[in-house]
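[step 3/7] fold_predict: job queued, chain A
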Amino acid sequence: MRENIKLYLTAFNTALQAKFEYRVDFFVGVLTSCMLQLSSLFFLWVVFHQTPSINGWMPNQVILLFGMTAAALGLSELFFNHIWFVPAYIVQGDLDRLLTYPVNSLYFLLITRPELHAFGNLATGALLTSYALIHLNAPWYAWVLFPLFAVSGCLIYTAALVIAASLSFKFVGPTSINLFVTNILLNATRYPLSIYPQVVQIVLLVLVPYGAFHYLPASLLLGKDLNLWIILVTPLAALFFFWEAGWFWRWGLNQYESTGS
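[step 4/7] structure written:
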C-alpha cells in the first residue's frame, strides 16, 4: 500500500512539473478560468440588480455558494482532471497501456494529468468564499470547516465524472458529452437548490449529491434551521459517492473491449 501511494505521488509530481514547463499556458489558463468565473459572477450581479434576493438567499449568501463551487471545481481539475480523456482513450485503444500497470487503474489515471488553470478556479473560489464569510459575519468554525467542504465537493464532483466516464465503456464514442452533463449540473448548484423543482432538488441532493458539500452546509452556517448533523453528512456523502464511482469504474472495465489495433 505504501509503495502504491509513493508511486501515485511520484506520477502526480512528474505530471505537474511537466505542466509547469509551459509558463505561458499556465498564466493564460489561470487568467481564462478567473475570467470565466467572474463572468458568471457578473450575471449574478445582473440578477440581483433586478431582485433583492433569490428565494430568500441574499447576494453574499449566493456568492458563498459560488465560491465553494469554484473551489471544489479547482481542486478536482488540479488533482483528478485526467478522467476527461477516458472516452477518447477507449476509442483510440490507449487505455490498454494503462491497464498493464501494476496499480489501481482508476487512481493512477486520475492523478496523471493535472490542469494548471485549476489554480485560477481555486483562487477565485477562495476569494469569493472569504469575501462572503467576512460580509456575512460567519462564525469562526465556518472558516475551519471550509477546507473540509471544499475537499468533499472535489471528491463528489470527481466521483460524478468517474461515473459518467464509466458509461463510455458501454456507450462508446469519441466525445466527452456525458462528462459535460456533470459539469453543467455542478454549475447549476451555484444557485440555491430551493429555486429548482423538487425532482431536480432530489437529483442534486441524493443521486448526484452536489448540494451536500455547499448548499446544506451553507444553510446550516447561515442559520436556516438545519441540524448540526449536516456537518457529518458532507464527508460521508463524499466518501460513499466516491466508493460508488469505483464500483461503476470496475463495471465499466468489465464491459471494455480493446480496439485490437
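[step 5/7] annotate
Residues 122 and 179 are 20 Å apart (CA to CA).
Residues 140-170 form the longest helix (31 residues).
exit 0
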